[in-house]
Specification:
This protein is α+β, with helices and mostly antiparallel strands and 379 residues long. Helices cover 21% and strands 33% of the residues. It has two domains: 27-273, Thrombin, subunit H (Beta Barrel), CATH 2.40.10; 277-370, Roll (Pdz3 Domain).
Length: 379
């Protein structure tokens, strides 16, 4: 019995030692991607361990993620190419007959050939050419776009495609190391590194729905639609914009979190569009002036300054001057949070709105409609 106990304790000691070595030097071996059969995308089933950079190198992440990041060349036909009718030339004269070209990046997220990129990369394109890191090229088809998040889904018909594994951006923290991969200025695929500078950036006036990851990893023109990845080479976000006075990187770049990108991908692949709720109100951040105008005894929040008379909110009893406190028990303290919560509502399904009117809280039942489709302005 004593020998068996000694053998058991030695075995446990060896296994613990092996586990410790793996979690320190090869934490990626302890993460197994789970298969999403509906969309055929890989997602990380996190082991809960913090990522560790071995020997100060990010080569593992770069080698793992780079094959799934593609370069996108777009071309736009000239007015003369689109309309060869001689009467067009007669009435409108000689037009500029030169085609316009654009550059961007994209991320392969499914072996079926689905690619995530930015809407502004492809929104005016007549032809889209996708170039893989292994030298292959293919014409891409636009499956759907979502201007309100500036995302688009493309599809190529190629076999044996490298696929990016989707991580969760919910546990991302300021200070985490990240890599940006794309094709800046058309020089070829480039990997830059940095950290997460901030989370939840909004009210930037870039998209309707904003919840950006801010990073100081160098992002330049041509990086749009490329990948922001963690040190395990898994996707955290889609690079979409930079703050710059010169046109080049100034250390402030923004990426759309993978949680939003996944929602858009699922909606477009399944239904051809992203379905969002809409209640027909005009929300505004509470200011001292508005608080005085509407006699509101609060310092911050969301006040309703306009209500569409034929919309769901008006029918539910919402009126200008009401403060909107929560949507389905989810508190909202600014316009971005309100838009996000309303967008998650399912059209035709009743929801609860908590409002403040004359210092009295009320619960109203609203039946949202589908959010009207909008067209984003070209950047």
């Amino acid at each position: 019995m004593k020998r068996l106990w000694l053998l058991f304790s030695q075995t446990v000691t060896v296994l613990v030692a092996v586990w410790f070595v793996l979690i320190t030097l090869k934490p990626e071996w302890l993460q197994r991607p789970s298969w999403n059969s509906n969309l055929q995308v890989f997602e990380v089933a996190s082991s809960g361990t913090s990522p560790v950079v071995s020997a100060g190198s990010l080569s593992f992440a770069a080698k793992k993620a780079s094959p799934a990041v593609v370069s996108i060349n777009t071309s736009q036909k000239s007015a003369l190419e689109k309309n060869k009718d001689p009467w067009f030339r007669y009435f409108f004269g000689d037009q500029d007959d030169s085609s316009q070209a654009g550059l961007g990046s994209g991320v392969i997220v499914s072996p079926q050939g689905y690619i995530l990129t930015n809407n502004h990369v492809v929104e005016t394109a007549d032809e889209i050419l996708v170039m893989l890191n292994d030298g292959r090229r293919a014409q891409a088809k636009v499956i759907g776009t979502d201007p309100e998040t500036d995302l688009a889904v493309l599809k190529v018909n190629l076999d044996n495609l490298p696929v990016m594994i989707l991580n969760s951006s919910e546990q991302l923290q300021v200070g985490d190391i990240v890599l940006a991969i794309g094709n800046p200025f058309g020089v070829g695929q480039t990997v830059t590194s940095g950290i997460v500078s901030a989370l939840g950036r909004n009210q930037l006036g870039i998209n309707t729905f904003e919840n950006f990851i801010q990073t100081d990893a160098a992002i330049n023109p041509g990086n749009s639609g490329g990948a922001l990845v963690d040190v395990q080479g898994n996707l955290l976000g889609i690079n979409t914009a930079i703050y710059s006075k010169s046109g080049g990187s100034m250390g402030i770049g923004f990426a759309i979190p993978v949680s939003i990108a996944k929602q858009v991908l699922e909606g477009i692949v399944k239904d051809g569009l992203v379905t969002r709720g809409w209640i027909g109100v005009e929300p505004t951040e509470l200011t001292p002036e508005l608080a005085q105008t509407f006699n509101v005894n609060r310092q911050e929040g969301v006040i309703i300054t306009g209500v569409l008379q034929t919309g769901p909110a008006f029918k539910a009893g919402v009126r200008p001057g009401d403060m909107l406190l929560a949507v389905n028990d989810h508190a909202v303290s600014n316009v971005a949070e309100l838009l996000a919560q309303v967008s998650l509502l399912k059209p035709g399904v009743n929801a609860q709105l908590k409002i403040l009117r004359k210092e009295q809280e009320q619960l109203l039942s609203v039946t949202p409609l589908q959010r009207p489709k909008v067209r984003a302005e070209r950047r």
